[in-house]
Design goal:
Layout: E1 2-8, E2 27-34, E3 37-45, H1 55-65, E4 70-73, H2 78-86, E5 90-93, H3 101-109, E6 114-115
Parallel strand pairs: 1-4, 4-5
Antiparallel strand pairs: 1-2, 2-3, 5-6
Helix pairs in contact: 1-2
Length: 130
């Protein structure tokens, strides 16, 4: 069984769009996968979205506290990358285009997404970007 966390725009859910900004997303959609099928979906607000600093690390803690073992991200800075790695989460890179969570899950289950071994943007990438 996998619990996949995806940064989401809006309130989250399968029909919402993936947020390209991990630490500053408004919510996380957590998708429980068993035998390559979606078993359940829940959303949690990202309490770190408006943090003065350290949003990526705080967001990583939220993902970890919700028992995720995979995270699919658009842009991931070095601090968040290190925090997720310390939690032993598998980090998957989402496509650059904005897609629905359902489409991102389909791509992941189809083996179309690549694992990330480190950050893919510099520090403070998502800070102060409305």
């Amino acid at each position: 069984m996998e619990i996949i966390a995806i940064p989401t725009n809006g309130k989250g859910g399968l029909n919402e769009d993936i947020s390209p900004r991990f630490g500053r997303c408004s919510s996380f959609t957590l998708v429980n996968i068993e035998n390559n099928e979606i078993i359940s979906v829940k959303t949690v607000p990202n309490q770190a979205a408006n943090a003065m600093g350290g949003a990526g690390v705080q967001a990583s803690q939220i993902v970890g506290m919700n028992n995720a073992n995979v995270v699919i991200v658009g842009k991931l800075g070095p601090n968040a990358s290190q925090a997720l790695s310390a939690l032993n989460l598998k980090i998957i890179e989402a496509p650059d285009e904005i897609l629905s969570i359902k489409k991102v899950i389909e791509l992941y289950l189809g083996g179309k997404l690549q694992e990330l071994s480190s950050s893919n943007v510099g520090s403070h990438f998502g800070a102060n970007r409305g």
